Amino acid sequence: MAGIETIVMPKWGLAMQEGMVAVWNVDVGAGISKGQEIMDIETSKIANALESPFSGKLRRKLVDAGETVPVGALLGVVADDSISDNEIDTFVSDFQAKFAESQAATASANGPEPEFIEVDGRQLRYLKLGDVGGDPVIFLHGYGADLNNWPGSCRVPG
Fold first, then answer.
1. Considering the entire predicted model, what is its pTM?
2. Does domain 4-109 have CATH number 1.10.405.10?
3. How far is the C-alpha of 58 from the C-alpha of 31, rounded, in Å?
4. Is the pLDDT assigned to residue 136 strictly greater than 50?
5. Nearest 5°: CA angle at 56, between 87 and 42?
6. Partner of 77 for a Cys bridge, out of 11, 41, 60, 122, CB 3.0 to 4.6 A?
7. How far apart are alpha carbons 23 and 43 in whole angstroms?
8. Is residue 6 within 8 Å of residue 77, measured between CB atoms?
9. pLDDT surpasses 70 at 109
């Protein structure tokens, strides 16, 4: 809808799937400027300030401090006073419905879920792709990486 801008959970890395709003630095009703740090976000790998991509008035917060949400989730809505609360309610409802649909579609297309195995008293997390038959191939990542680096680069012939 024209006149309504969205603040969504950013994707700050290849493996980032969710983030936690640590703190909002602005209140509902406050004017914000493009580039202003409006909240702090923490992920499993980084803590960073989210800068507003535009100027306007923060009309709605959808996620409170301490909540963890997936990348792309609606965090807040910016609009001027010419946009009614009812218009914002309708916009938010439509956004949330479309986001839920896209999350469901993505979940089914994302591939395997991590599995766990215990070896010599240590728990290891792994992904399994492909058929059970044939010789297994094991990919080991280096320091600073994790199993999330492999799915996008490994394709099992179909």
1. 0.68
2. no
3. 6
4. yes
5. 95
6. 60
7. 13
8. yes
9. no
Other CB atoms within 10 Å distance of the CB of residue 5: 19
Please, which pLDDT band fits residue 135 given cuts at 50, 70 and 90? confident
CA dihedral 88, 89, 91, 96 (to 10 degrees): 140
How far is residue 122's CA from residue 127's CA, in Å, rounded to a whole number?
A: 17
Q: Which residue type, as a one-letter code, is found at position 13?
A: G
pLDDT, position 158: 46
50, with CB counted inside 10 A (0-12, 13-18, 19+), is buried
| Dist. CA 154–CA 137, nearest whole Å | 11
Write down the H helix ranges in the chain. 85-109
The structural domains of the chain, with segments of one domain joined by +, span 4-109, 115-149
Q: Which amino acid is at 129?
A: L
